[in-house]
């Protein structure tokens, strides 16, 4: 029996595109693997049906997913799933799509099935390439992307989830959002992520006590991942990240990820 498998990763927000359409994210080593094979699922699957329709795949396909990304906490689980499932399906059918075309079409799928209000091109981009990506989600263009120092990362996710499809922002945040965008454009990726997290923490709330403990344990940077509610810390020394996790009492210690999607086809 033939199987196609694709592994992507979660990420952390640099810029959240809800305010004016500019988005950014960097990849962290929290993998999600989708495995596709012939068959049908018991219940209707809007995402798989949308992928099959978009790419002209007539075969009935089913899949299984193994993920280490906490879902609904601002850590890019939806985009990791969309990309992994689409890539595995295309690989299964030996369909080759250019990266730029693939990303735009998957962003449109994400909006169509209600996974993202903006299409999350930035999140899809980091899941495809690793490192960081800055994108214009209105014009569906990649502005810049690159690699980052592979710092240790602590992510702490708890509380009620905040699905991207239901985000509603009241108030004028354009000027402060532009400040974060200017930092990102000038290459200050981590500083932009920190400011962006506090902008959205002001709007939706932020776990300041956990951020404080992360900082006290030696983090270089600490904030919320976009709309959250997950918060993160970046550390030079992984032992500091582990100590912070022990102090807080929960969390996941990982690192920045600079490799992109990985995939394979095999028989079993």
From TrEMBL:
InterPro entries, sorted: GHMP_kinase_C_dom, GHMP_kinase_N_dom, Ribosomal_Su5_D2-typ_SF, Ribsml_uS5_D2-typ_fold_subgr, SK_arc
Molecular function terms, GO-annotated: ATP binding; shikimate kinase activity
Catalytic activity: shikimate + ATP = 3-phosphoshikimate + ADP + H(+)
Keyword annotations: Amino-acid biosynthesis, Aromatic amino acid biosynthesis, ATP-binding, Cytoplasm, Kinase, Nucleotide-binding, Transferase
Residues annotated as binding ATP: 70-80
UniProt cross-references to Pfam families, sorted A to Z: GHMP_kinases_C, GHMP_kinases_N
Family stated for the protein in its record: Belongs to the GHMP kinase family. Archaeal shikimate kinase subfamily.
Listed name of the protein: Shikimate kinase
Source organism per UniProt: Thermoplasma volcanium (strain ATCC 51530 / DSM 4299 / JCM 9571 / NBRC 15438 / GSS1)
């Amino acid at each position: 029996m033939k199987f196609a498998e694709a592994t992507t990763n979660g990420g952390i927000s640099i810029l959240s595109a809800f305010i004016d359409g500019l988005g950014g994210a960097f990849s962290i080593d929290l993998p999600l693997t989708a495995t596709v094979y012939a068959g049908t699922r018991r219940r209707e699957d809007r995402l798989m049906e949308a992928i099959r329709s978009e790419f002209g795949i007539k075969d009935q396909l089913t899949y299984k997913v193994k993920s280490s990304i906490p879902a609904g906490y601002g850590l890019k689980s939806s985009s990791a799933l969309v990309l992994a499932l689409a890539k595995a399906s295309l690989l299964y059918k030996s369909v080759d799509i250019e990266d730029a075309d693939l990303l735009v079409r998957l962003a449109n799928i994400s909006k169509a099935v209600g996974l993202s209000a903006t299409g999350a091109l930035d999140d899809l981009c980091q899941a495809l390439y690793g490192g960081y990506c800055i994108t214009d989600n209105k014009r569906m263009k990649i502005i810049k992307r690159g690699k980052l120092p592979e710092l240790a990362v602590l992510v702490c996710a708890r509380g009620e989830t905040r699905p991207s499809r239901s985000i509603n922002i009241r108030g004028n945040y354009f000027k402060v959002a532009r400040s974060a965008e200017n930092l990102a454009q000038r290459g200050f990726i981590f500083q932009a992520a920190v400011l962006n997290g506090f902008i959205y923490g002001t709007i939706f709330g932020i776990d300041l006590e956990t951020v404080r403990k992360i900082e006290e344990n030696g983090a270089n940077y600490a904030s919320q991942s976009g709309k959250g509610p997950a918060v993160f810390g970046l550390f030079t020394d992984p032992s500091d990240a582990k100590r912070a996790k022990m102090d807080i009492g929960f969390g996941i210690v990982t690192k920045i990820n600079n490799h992109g999607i990985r995939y394979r086809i095999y028989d079993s």
